[in-house]
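Input record, target 12 of the design panel.
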């Protein structure tokens, strides 16, 4: 079913909610290859699981839908309704967020209204926690409101208690307090420097902070919150959240055999690194990736490149075409290719989880995006942390300070230097330090595996969630 095109008015943002509405049998969808084209694999798998006893309608954005269609040269059945506004997405984040706040909700409202009218059996509404409108819309159409959180419980809990941070002058002031934050329920004392980057800002009127304040006000009124984390890893934080609201840790949300997954995580084609990895000794290769969209400054990029040369380790480096804002296509230092020869491999994209699970890989230099952290833990690969913004700053604390499964690449205050990069790489890849990290990460992997077994916490939480949703729906009816 395709809904009519909406007019996005004066603010030009990528068209959101009028994309593709898929009343899906995901089994069929997958075998027809459509899931594999889908860029948000977390959500696809999540939907597949949740299908248990439910019918799912998946609403995709028109922009993403267009990207998917474009990537399929043989797909002649889909019409292209999309404006070419994609580049605006990150070129002007503020403008994008203004659209997100002011234009988007009306369209979601209209879309959900149409859906509910055409199918009155729709009872439940699942949306990403960062959205600012779920409560209003769920209420209007009498739907059970489920918030889906894609970062650690620690990060959710901090956003959840923004009011406390403000009362204590740790957020929203120019001369913020610099002492530890020890009053967030279920959260051990945390330093202000470890807060998410958005909370380090002081301009409360910025579109980002307005979005955050509104979204985390809304989430308090959700009926249920699903979190892509593991109960045993964040038990105190989750218990404290659960006292306030029904919260379910159901992670890690990726296929139980991710290396066999047919779900691509991006529309860029994946470079196959297997043959190259086969030629390398066990645990000798460092994998480097900064996720799907953050950019590295040109200075940091250069220091990392030189640090790699100095370290002498073998590596695979994912360099997306937009990894830095360099205009030139060749962004690597002069002579880099000659120096690395067959020691290093640069790829535009690959299957990260396949690379991480290869025995030749012994370390991961990561920006600490939550999916990367989960995947690294799953594959038992110690991390070298280079957080860039948002939750990555706080995720680093979990990885290095709390779980002891990674090292900092730098102190986060002074700029990184090539010498320090090389030293840290060598620490992770060899010697006593590396072995200690490996021991800890094996325990974490075991915890994750246990959570996913039939009697494990994530499975149990998930079934509890399904049962609670059914009860809630019945009560409402
Ligand atoms: O060559 C590559 C590089 C990455 N990936 C995948 O891309 C995803 C990257 O996700 P993540 O590590 O979470 O990073 P971002 O794409 O940067 O994720 C955004 O969303 C996350 C979840 O909300 C946040 O934790 C991050 O801070 C935010 O930047 C992972 O599944 C990787 O396996 C690949 O498959 N191949």
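The sequence produced for target 12 reads:
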């Amino acid at each position: 079913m395709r809904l009519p095109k909406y007019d996005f008015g004066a603010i030009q943002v990528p068209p959101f909610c009028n994309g593709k509405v898929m009343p899906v049998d995901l089994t069929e969808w997958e075998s027809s290859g459509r899931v594999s084209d889908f860029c948000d694999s977390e959500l696809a798998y999540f939907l597949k699981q949740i299908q248990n006893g439910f019918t799912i309608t998946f609403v995709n954005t028109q922009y993403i839908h267009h990207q998917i269609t474009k990537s399929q040269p043989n797909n002649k059945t889909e019409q292209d309704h999309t404006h070419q506004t994609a580049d605006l997405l990150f070129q002007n984040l503020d403008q994008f967020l203004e659209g997100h706040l002011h234009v988007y909700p009306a369209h979601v409202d209209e879309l959900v209204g149409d859906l509910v009218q055409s199918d009155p059996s729709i009872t439940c509404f699942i949306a990403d926690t960062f959205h600012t409108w779920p409560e209003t819309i769920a209420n209007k159409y009498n739907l059970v409101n489920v918030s889906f959180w894609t970062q650690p419980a620690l990060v959710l809990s901090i956003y959840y208690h923004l009011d406390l941070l403000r009362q204590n002058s740790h957020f929203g002031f120019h001369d913020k307090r610099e002492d530890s934050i020890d009053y967030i329920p279920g959260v051990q004392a945390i330093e202000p420097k470890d807060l998410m980057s958005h909370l380090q800002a002081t301009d409360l009127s910025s579109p980002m902070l307005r979005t955050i304040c509104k979204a985390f006000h809304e989430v308090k009124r959700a009926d249920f919150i699903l979190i892509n984390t593991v109960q045993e890893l964040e038990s105190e934080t989750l218990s404290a959240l659960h006292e306030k609201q029904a919260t379910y840790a159901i992670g890690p949300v990726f296929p139980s055999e991710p290396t066999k997954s047919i779900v691509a995580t991006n529309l860029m084609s994946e470079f196959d690194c297997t043959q190259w990895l086969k030629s390398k000794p066990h645990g000798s290769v460092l994998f480097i990736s900064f996720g799907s969209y953050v950019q590295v400054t040109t200075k940091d990029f250069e220091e990392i490149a030189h640090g790699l040369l100095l370290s002498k380790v073998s590596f695979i480096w994912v360099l997306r075409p937009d990894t830095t804002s360099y205009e030139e296509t060749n962004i690597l230092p002069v002579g880099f290719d000659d120096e690395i020869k067959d020691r290093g491999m640069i790829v535009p994209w690959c299957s990260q989880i396949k690379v991480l699970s290869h025995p030749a890989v012994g370390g991961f230099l990561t920006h600490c995006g939550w999916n990367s952290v989960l995947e690294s833990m799953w594959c038992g690969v110690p991390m070298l942390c280079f957080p860039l913004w948002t939750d990555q700053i706080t995720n680093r604390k979990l990885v290095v300070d709390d779980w002891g499964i990674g090292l900092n690449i730098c102190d986060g205050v002074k700029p990184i230097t090539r010498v320090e990069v090389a030293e840290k790489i060598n620490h992770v890849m060899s010697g006593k330090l590396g072995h200690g990290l490996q021991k800890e990460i094996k325990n974490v992997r075991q915890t994750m595996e246990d959570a996913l077994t039939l009697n494990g916490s994530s499975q149990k939480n998930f079934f509890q969630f399904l049962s609670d949703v059914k009860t809630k729906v019945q009560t409402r009816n």
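The radius of gyration is 22 Å.
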